[in-house]
Amino acid sequence: xxxxxxxxxxxxxxxxxxxxxxxxxxxxxxxxxxxxxxxxxxxxxxxxxxxxxxxxxxxxxxxxxxxxxxxxxxxxxxxxxxxxxxxxxxxxxxxxxxxxxxxxxxxxxxxxxxxxxxxxxxxxxxxxxxxxxxxxxxx
Length: 139
Description:
Elements (H helix, E strand, L loop, with lengths): L8 E5 L2 H12 L1 E5 L5 E6 L4 E6 L19 E5 L4 H11 L2 E2 L11 E5 L5 E6 L1 H13 L1
Parallel strand pairs: 1-4, 5-8
Antiparallel strand pairs: 2-3, 3-4, 6-7, 7-8
């Protein structure tokens, strides 16, 4: 018998309440304050479940990363026509654009740092891209 499980991303930070406000606004998610004052969860639409945990010795990650460093980032999917607006919204909430090594070509994925320094990206949803390609092919 398999035990039921769920998973979500936990970001370490110095101020979980402030970072929760940022992601709550960006993702249209509800902040759920837990009994542990160093831990906050966000739950939103379309399966968003993110947690923020206070690390009293927190140091923001650096960018760019060394070539062989492993890391993770949060990828936020948006519709093709909404990418520019999503970028304006993220920056207005405190996100900082990150320059990537290869910023030429399509800008279908854009990288940022949240107010605590974690990297995340805004990207065109693969489903939206396939629908958009299919519509253009029939135009």
